[in-house]
Each structure stands twice: as structure tokens, then as C-alpha cells.
Amino acid sequence: MIKIKNNIATLCYFLPGACYLTVFVVWSSYPQSHSLNGVLGGLWMLGQIGILILLPNLYRQKIAGGSQWKVLGVAIAACGAISYSINYIFGHWLDMNTRMFLPLGALLSGAGMLITGIQVIIAKRWHGIKGKFPLFVGLYPFVVMFPLLIITGHPDLTAIMGWGIPWFLLGLGMATNRPSVGTLLLHRNK
Known about the structure:
Layout: H1 8-13, H2 15-29, H3 34-60, H4 71-93, H5 101-123, H6 133-152, H7 157-162, H8 164-175, H9 181-189
């Protein structure tokens, strides 16, 4: 049986995946309009806020091992979420040309999570498939989003929203994470 921790931060672990997938369903189901784009953009921002809550907790859970450089991956991924947020705030609300922030956000988020995913695998703190969830999040833009961008010449919203699946899996992994004895000893010794 899966045991999920019960607190607000744990619910925020699911925000990125839930928001991305909800935007996809709504975007696919209703005709496009400026007001709908505003609502979907707000939901997108909520997902980015979820990422900005998830990342420090990922760092604190020490699933990437005890090295000090593990903050690098988390910080780069956070810069990606901020880049996406800048695109929405300045692009939608202030009507500025911010299209460069979309691929930049994907690149930074993907690279940061790729670094973190490699660190998690090396540290072996999460066993089985759960230990590969951060790597899946990091690989997704490079395996799915960027190839479609190169082929079609523009970002594919379906591919971007599909990124919600690995984010949701990462949130599930974090929400069901039980600290190991070694992790508990690390926290007790600090």
C-alpha cells in the first residue's frame, strides 16, 4: 500500500503534473480565446509555483546524496520555472515579446532535472523505478519537446503539457518517500 505524507507541501508536489495535464485537457476541449488563455496561463503559473515548492523539498530530502554540488541541478531547474513565469507575466499580461523564455525555461528545467536525476541515481537513495523519476523529468524536453521543435519549427503545446506526466510521477515519488535509516541519521547529526 502506498502511504502518502499529509501536509500542504506534499500536495504541492502534485501541482506541476496536475496543472500541466489540466491545461492540456482544457486547451484541447474548448475553443481558444484571450480569456481562456489567461485562465490557462494562471494555471500554468500555479504549476511553476508548485515546481518552485517541489525543488527545495527535493533538495532537503537529500535524495541526490550528501554532496554540496547537488544544489546546482535544483537551482538550474528553478531558473527554468522562473523563466516560464516571466514568459507568462510579461508576455500575457504586459503584452511583451517573451517567446524566448519558453524554450529557455524548458532547457533550464530539463538540464537542472537531468543533473538532479543523475545525482539521484548515483546516490541510490530512491530504489527501483522511483529513483529514475527525476531523470525522466530531465530527459523529457530533450527526447520529446526539442525534437518536435526542430521538426515543426514551433513549440508543440501537446508535448509541453505531456511533461506533466513525469512531473506528476516525481511528485508521487516525493510524496511517498520514506526516509531511510541513513537519511534519518544524517538529519539527526546536523
